Amino acid sequence: MALDFTAIDFETANSSSASACAVGLVRVRAGEIVAATGWLIRPPAGHDAFFEVNTRIHGITAGDVAGALSWSAQLADIAAFVGDDVLVAHNAGFDMAVIKRACEATGDACPPYRYACSLHVARRVYTLDSYRLPSVAAEAGFADFLHHDATADALACAHVMIDAARRTGSDDIEGLAEATGVRVSQIVAASASPATREAAVVAA
After folding, report:
1. Domain range for residue 192?
2. How far apart are CA 23 and CA 78, in angstroms?
3. Residue 2: its pLDDT value, please?
4. How far apart are CA 148 and CA 44, in angstroms?
5. Whose CA is closest to 60, among 22, 94, 23?
């Protein structure tokens, strides 16, 4: 086995989890970053208002995404980049909710990605005053990145997981999850049965 995964980060236009307006993606193979990309997204209708507080955080406006692909139009591009990888995100519950809620808003099939949270891993591996991504990434040796740029945040997340795996002697995501007591979960679409929902949160 090898330390293979895709780190992902979303920015949102407003307080709705469905309002994805940018995504960053970073591919890791055998513990090395081999590809990184990101792009703007036009949020789904009904979730496309840009709140001032969100724009103040990430700098993205409605005008910036006017010519961007919609969630439905670019979902296949995310899937093509991710492939069969486990997704990793810092505070992964937020980013997985974006995927799930945006798909619900557009009627797209929600990809059943498996995922792990670098925030949870960091809390088990590092002793820090803050576990916000900039603090954790600095501890992992990746400092001074543009926080709230989706691709930069995904890169920071990838560095955290690579460093955590090194510190714990873990060869892959499953090993890192076991070493830190962190769960590898799975996105479950809203229409899934209770039995399927229960099975999806069983640790890998």
Report:
1. 5-200
2. 9
3. 95
4. 21
5. 22
